[in-house]
Amino acid sequence: MRTVLTRHIYYPMTQKLKGHRVAQYLSSYQTIERLNEDELSKIQTDNLRRTLEIAAQTPYYKALFKKLGFKAEDADNFSALPITTKLDINRNPAAFHNPDYQGPLIEGRTSGTTGIALSVLYDSDWDQRNQAAQLHGRSWWKIYPGARELDIWGRAFDSKGAAWKAHLKLALMNKKMISCFQLSDSQLDSLTPKLAKFKPEVIYSYTTGVGRLAEYLWEKYGEDPPFRPRVVIITSETLLEPHRAALIRVFGSEPVNEYGAVEGGIIAFQCPEGGLHIFADRILLEIVEPDEEGFGRVVITPFLNRAMPLLRYDLGDLGRLVESKCSCGRTLPLFELAEARVSDIVVTPRGKVASSTFFDFMAKSLIPYGLRQFRVIQKSKTKFLIQMVRSQGKDETVEKMVREQIGQFLGEELEVNFDYLNELRPEKSGKLRYFIREDF
Question: Is the C or the N end of the chain the one with fewer CB within 10 Å?
Answer without folding.
Answer: N
